[in-house]
Amino acid sequence: MNSLIRIWIGLMLLLMTALDAEGAEVSPIAILCPCSFEPQNQTYGLAKFSVVFNDPVAASGAVNVEFAMFKDLDFSNWSLLSSAEINSLAYKAAPQAVEVRLPTYAFSNSATGFAGLRITNTTDFNFYDGVLLSTSSSTRQKVYGLSSVNSLPMMFLTPPEFSATVDSATLTVSKL
After folding, report:
1. What's the number of domains the chain is made of?
2. pLDDT tens digits for range 70-99
């Protein structure tokens, strides 16, 4: 009788594993570290990491790269701080180095947690992969930058130049 129960339990576990594998969507890409996010100026920061493909496919498809503060170390709850879209990455068997300009936003309140990067699908925002940049909790608070994640970002890629006379003022940025 014990052997029949063991066989029945084994078959049920095998069936449940097969059903789970069939329903789960496999991410086309994953993040490979070393990874970093470095503020460049008051309007943007640079996310640096590598991408590896999980399966040979033509391309990754459009993905979002997000800089976020994770409330816990398990990626279940986060505050989005910045996001940018990558149209697609062509398949390569070797890891590909990626650098993404992420706009800096002004926040009305602070975000506390663990800084990290996320990659999601741009169509349905399914989570593909993520990485914590620090295992120490920190607080991010900005008093400059763009006003909303939904507004179109304008990034200064060169330092602004300002000049003024008694009658006028001029602000010049050679590369936006």
Report:
1. 1
2. 888 877 888 888 889 999 999 999 999 999
